[in-house]
Write a structure and sequence with these properties.
The complex is a heterodimer of chains A (384) and B (341). Chain A has 384 residues and is of the alpha+beta class. Helices cover 54% and strands 14% of the residues of chain A. The longest helix of chain A has 37 residues. The chains are: A alpha+beta (384), B mainly alpha (341).
């Protein structure tokens, strides 16, 4: 008989966490919610973060458009029609004067019969800040006349030049932001609603309902978008008020955008409804609406938000295109597309190129939305 | 394969029917119609003869009939006094504004639209393919970032403005005529080599303008697909065997990532047609865009309807071809036995 092996028993008290200790970082990561992880991932995407700040800035400017713009939307300066942009200066004859512009000197060119404006180096017009300028009704609530920046008394400040009625292009762009940016959001809301409902029904029920909705989606997708938008907005009654037209346009933009979203929702739902947690919810007697809304949707909400962000730019561009054709919004409602409508002919490109400046914010916002959406999508993807 | 083709063709019929119905309803949405507007105008002028003619036309084209009957007559599934005569019988209807049959008004325009859209797709492919391949093989290089940015820029510039600026510079730098898809003297002339050359000469501006907006998406998709393929084991194996990188790239992964190109015609076509509609207005091309816009504005219902139907038909057929090509090119896609999900 062999010697009995000593049975080893540790004498120190049992410490369950001793074997596997997590560093504080790991612990933070494992305990973080889905949204927190998304946020961390998003933060690493430098361009997306910058775009997010930019968009925030643009949307914040909507709240105080009247204050930010040096002039009012409709204020006209008949002495300065088609005046070119004034450039912002800091030094006059080697001396620092602070931000100012040189005033115009105007002369009539008898050959072309056009007024020609030139900066006059003797007219130094220092800008005023937080000053009283054109009076306006702030959000139709109360009257005010505070502006962030105003021209010198008796001077002008047309950073982006003026249009055919002598209106300041910069001020009009700032006012146009309000309409242009919200058109996209409202359109998205419409398409989101349709997409979620149809995609949800299609993916959850499957079967013949699914194939019916799928055929329907295919049909909608095979419509060429813009011609149909054109037809729909041509169908808007002429006697509608500009505000009604605005809502009409947003709905039209949303009406054709949902199929992509509906497909995404459907394919996710098809996969998710087989999961145990969905079955459990059904067995506990949850209604289909509750199962979809409370259990299934949240698991891919982040993905949805990302794809929504990515479809805002096409709406903004759509509105711009429609207004440019004269089928979209109509003055006095001012959007970037309405402003660009003025830049419709080749003369503008040749003679008054600054009237095309409203394209800059369109460009910046569309780019920012694309980068922001890309960042969100990457962050929402659990496999990266 | 045959059954799939037939089924796919059969699906197109209800699709086109629904599209035609929706199109017609949208066109009829605004109150009144072209002739009733015109009749009101003539009545105020007291023009008796023209008034009678307009009334006669209104009756002949059944504009006084209920909506559904008008639709059925337009499609050609409902007889008028002159028997069946609608889209199905090849009768596009009557353009009130031009006082001509739609087929005659439209003439070359449909063909030109088709040529334009087809060229744009070729252009998009020709540009997106090398750029996408380069961006994927040189991932995270300056070239990759630069080209991606360029793609984004194309995506974010509104087409119509780009068209204006490009047209201006083409005129100033190269002395090209402004607008139009051919020199004015060739309009309404029969096709000849000179006319064809003139079209080619004018075509490149709209092609570049419309193409740039679709290229960005295509580049991104090709890059993503190719990146996925490049990580696969067969690529590693081939590389380990010492296969030259370029030959390897062209022979295997590039072919695999070709599928999205074909599949994308379906996505590309509606956007190309949309793009060409607006660019055509800006550049006053003699394609469908400007005429469609006018027809929509003046409620010239058969002209507008036939145009929209034509564009929809182009899209539907394009999607059909892309589905078929995909099935032929990719052996992994099995069409027998149930629907491909």
């Amino acid at each position: 008989m062999s010697a009995k092996l000593e049975h080893y028993v540790a004498t120190e008290p049992f410490e369950p966490l001793a074997t596997e200790t997590l560093t504080p970082e790991q612990e933070r990561f494992y305990r973080a919610s889905q949204w927190k992880i998304m946020w961390w991932k998003f933060r690493r995407h430098r361009i997306a973060v910058i775009s997010a700040w930019l968009l925030l800035f643009f949307y914040a400017s909507i709240l105080v458009s009247e204050v930010l713009s040096p002039y009012n939307l409709h204020s006209r300066d008949t002495r300065h029609i088609y005046a070119p942009p004034q450039s912002l200066q800091l030094f006059h004859e080697g001396k620092f004067v602070g931000p100012f512009v040189y005033g115009y000197s105007m002369e009539l060119n008898m050959q072309t019969m056009r007024r020609e404006f030139r900066p006059d180096q003797t007219k130094v017009q220092a800008l005023r800040f937080f000053c009283r300028g054109d009076g306006y009704e702030f959000w139709d609530l109360f009257e005010a006349d505070l502006h962030l920046v105003c021209p010198a008394a008796g001077g002008t400040f047309f950073l982006f030049g003026t249009d055919r009625l002598g209106r300041d292009v910069l001020s009009r762009i700032i006012h146009g932001t309000r309409i242009s940016l919200t058109v996209g959001l409202l359109g998205i809301a419409v398409s989101f609603l349709i997409g979620i409902i149809l995609g949800g029904i299609s993916g959850y029920y499957g079967g013949w309902i699914d194939s019916l909705i799928q055929r329907f989606i295919e049909m909608v997708r095979s419509f060429p978008e813009l011609p149909l938008w054109m037809a729909l907005s041509a169908a808007l009654p002429v006697n509608w008020s500009p505000v009604l037209v605005y809502f009409g346009i947003t709905i039209i933009l949303g009406l054709l955008d949902w199929p992509g979203l509906a497909r995404a929702v459907r394919s996710k739902l098809l996969a998710l409804r087989e999961e145990e947690f969905a079955t459990a919810a059904v067995l506990m007697g949850a209604t289909p609406g509750r199962v979809i809304g409370r259990h299934l949707l949240p698991s891919f909400a982040s993905h949805l938000i990302a794809s929504l962000t990515l479809s805002v730019p096409s709406m903004i561009l759509g509105e711009t295109a429609l207004s440019f054709l004269g089928l979209g919004l109509r003055p006095p409602v001012t959007s970037w597309g309405v402003l660009l409508n003025e830049a419709q002919n080749i003369n503008v490109v040749a003679l008054y190129p600054w009237l095309m400046l409203p394209v800059v914010p369109v460009f910046v916002v569309v780019l920012a939305f694309n980068f922001f959406g890309d960042g969100l999508r990457d962050a929402a993807d659990p496999y990266r | 394969m045959l059954t799939y083709t037939i089924r796919r063709l059969l699906i197109m019929i209800p699709t086109l029917l629904v599209i035609s119905f929706v199109t017609f309803s949208i066109i009829k949405l605004p109150p009144g119609d072209f002739l009733s507007n015109q009749i009101a105008e003539l009545r105020s002028q007291g023009d008796k003869a023209a008034l009678e003619r307009a009334e006669f036309m209104r009756a002949q084209y059944g504009l006084d009939k209920p909506f559904l009957e008008q639709y059925a007559v337009w499609v050609g599934i409902w007889p008028t006094e002159r028997g069946f005569s609608g889209l199905l019988q090849g009768d596009w209807g009557w353009s009130f504004e031009h006082d001509l049959p739609v087929a005659e008004v439209v003439g070359d325009r449909m063909l030109l639209s088709f040529i334009l859209n087809f060229t744009v797709i070729l252009f998009t492919w020709a540009v997106a393919f090398p750029i996408g391949a380069y961006a994927a093989t040189h991932q995270y290089s300056w070239g990759d970032y630069g080209l991606t940015l360029l793609g984004y820029v194309g995506l974010a510039t509104p087409n119509f403005l780009f068209a204006l600026v490009l047209m201006y510079f083409a005129n100033v730098e190269f002395g090209l005529a402004i607008g139009g898809i051919m020199d004015p003297e060739y309009l309404d002339k029969p096709w000849s080599w000179a006319k064809f050359g003139s079209v080619l000469n004018h075509l490149w501006i709209p092609v570049i303008v419309i193409g740039t907006s679709g290229t960005a998406g295509m580049i991104r998709r090709l890059r993503a697909n190719l990146l996925d393929e490049l990580q696969k084991q067969y690529v590693v194996t081939a590389r380990a065997k010492g296969m030259p990188p370029f030959g390897l790239l062209v022979k295997y992964p590039l072919r695999m990532s070709l599928n999205p190109f074909i599949a994308d015609i379906g996505n590309l076509l509606p956007s190309v047609i949309s793009g060409s509609a607006i660019v055509a207005v800006v550049l006053s091309l003699q394609t469908s865009g400007p005429m469609l816009l006018d027809a929509l504005r003046s409620q010239d219902q058969y002209l507008a309807g036939s145009f929209l139907m034509f564009l929809a038909l182009l899209t539907v057929i394009g999607m059909f071809i892309s589905d078929l090509l995909l099935a032929v090119l990719d052996p992994r896609i099995r069409l027998t036995g149930g629907m491909a999900r």
